[in-house]
Design brief:
Layout (H helix, E strand, L loop, with lengths): L7 H23 L9 E7 L3 E8 L1 H6 L15 H8 L3 H10 L1 H7 E4 L5 E7 L11 E8 L8 E4 L6 E5 L6 E5 L18 H16 L4 H13 L3 H23 L10 H21 L5 H25 L6 H31 L5 H26 L1
Parallel strand pairs: 1-7
Antiparallel strand pairs: 1-2, 2-5, 3-6, 4-5, 7-8
């Protein structure tokens, strides 16, 4: 049976911590920012005769023709060089190009119940750091036909996610739409009638989907916790610590008590990758539950909560739905985590858990693979 050397776990733990600190230090000194893709945000006002949309987006992505459903970063796209050339344009030149290419955008914007949208203004927000995405705000307007018919807003699949916001205060509506989806019916001079149960369910689904299938890093972390021990007490202790921690930072970050600048999101993602590698290595070298493991898992849970918060912010939270949406999203995340543990138990623990070779053929190889992925992600998110 596999038995680690008694002093090796301490040495490796210290090595991982020092390596993590080195990664962070080097990243602070010279890491470049990837051109991460973000959802566009549409603030919508509907009157009896018109619909007005203030659309904030990274317009270079659309001009370059990038299908954001196929890549996570513009550097991964075949049109990466075109994007970089557009990103190098002056703010004035970009605004002029947007006006000239407006038919391209108009064809991708879907407004049901209204006429063709007109471009009434372009505001390019200055961002001197070319390694960071630049936001552009498009002011749009379309005429409505006579009557009281509501309207819906969306855009084509390849444009990716779109946050639609309508109204103010407790009657405000906010929803994250995948490309091709349409918003709820937005009434003229009124509020969207969306029941609390519908809002709750929508954010539960978003929470689950952030784990399965979108959250591979969170899946690997939870899987790493599962591999630590087949006994239910160590697993319960770790999952409880992790859940409490990410719930705290998710709430604080969403309430803006803790604020992570967009330019530093990469650092949170890097630390999350390091957390994945750490728990996996400790599975191999120190497979006994102690207070240190719980403290480490709790600390890493705080980081994962910040990662959840950045996603929840992208989804769009209306003021009147804030608390309900936050609770529902967290519930969805927990369901996703339980699903990961459940699948791991059915596929691995049930058929192999009582064998003498479970640790050697399941725990050690799987943990090693998770550690390698975590280290690679830490390097990729910091330097590449």
């Amino acid at each position: 049976m596999f038995k680690p050397f008694p002093k090796l776990p301490i040495m490796v733990s210290r090595f991982v911590l020092m390596s993590s600190a080195l990664v962070i230090l080097l990243a602070f000194c010279g890491a470049s920012q990837a051109h991460d893709l973000r959802p566009a945000v549409a603030d919508v006002t509907v009157t009896q005769s018109k619909i007005q949309v203030e659309l904030q987006l990274t317009v270079e992505t659309l001009l370059a023709g990038i299908d954001v459903t196929k890549v996570m970063d513009t550097d991964e796209a075949p049109q990466a060089e075109t994007y970089d050339q557009l990103r190098g344009l002056t703010d004035v030149a970009l605004a002029e190009l947007v006006r000239a290419e407006w038919p391209l955008f108009a064809s991708g914007l879907l407004i049901e119940g209204a006429g063709l949208p007109k471009l009434t203004g372009v505001n390019v927000i200055a961002e001197p750091n070319l390694d960071l995405p630049r936001d552009t705000i498009l002011m749009l307007q379309a005429d409505l036909p006579p009557g009281n018919g509501a309207v819906s807003l969306g855009w084509i699949v390849q444009n990716g996610g779109l946050v639609v916001r309508h109204g103010d205060g407790h009657n405000a509506y906010a929803a994250f739409l995948e490309g091709g989806e349409m918003s709820a019916r937005l009434p003229r001079d009124g509020a969207v009638d969306e029941r609390a149960a519908a809002v709750f369910w929508r954010f539960v689904v978003e929470g689950v989907e952030h784990i399965i299938p979108k959250g591979l890093d969170h899946i690997l972390f939870v899987f790493g916790l599962f591999l630590f021990s087949l006994a239910w007490r160590p697993l319960l202790a770790q999952i409880t610590a992790f859940t409490l921690a990410h719930t705290v930072t998710l709430g604080l970050a969403t309430l803006s008590v803790i604020t992570i600048p967009p330019t530093q999101i990469w650092l949170v993602e890097t630390l999350i990758a390091i957390s994945i590698a750490y728990v996996a290595i400790e599975n191999i070298l120190r497979p006994k539950l102690g207070w240190w493991r719980i403290v480490v898992v709790f600390g890493f849970g705080l980081l994962h909560g910040l990662g959840f918060a950045s996603v929840l912010g992208d989804l769009g939270l209306a003021q009147g739905q804030f608390v309900l949406s936050l609770i529902a999203f967290n519930v969805g995340v927990e369901f996703g985590q339980l699903a990961v543990i459940g699948m791991a138990f059915i596929l691995l623990a049930l058929p192999l858990g009582r064998t003498n070779f479970y640790r050697n053929i399941v725990v050690v190889p799987c943990s090693l693979g998770i550690a390698i992925v975590g280290v690679w992600w830490a390097i990729e998110r910091s330097f590449l």
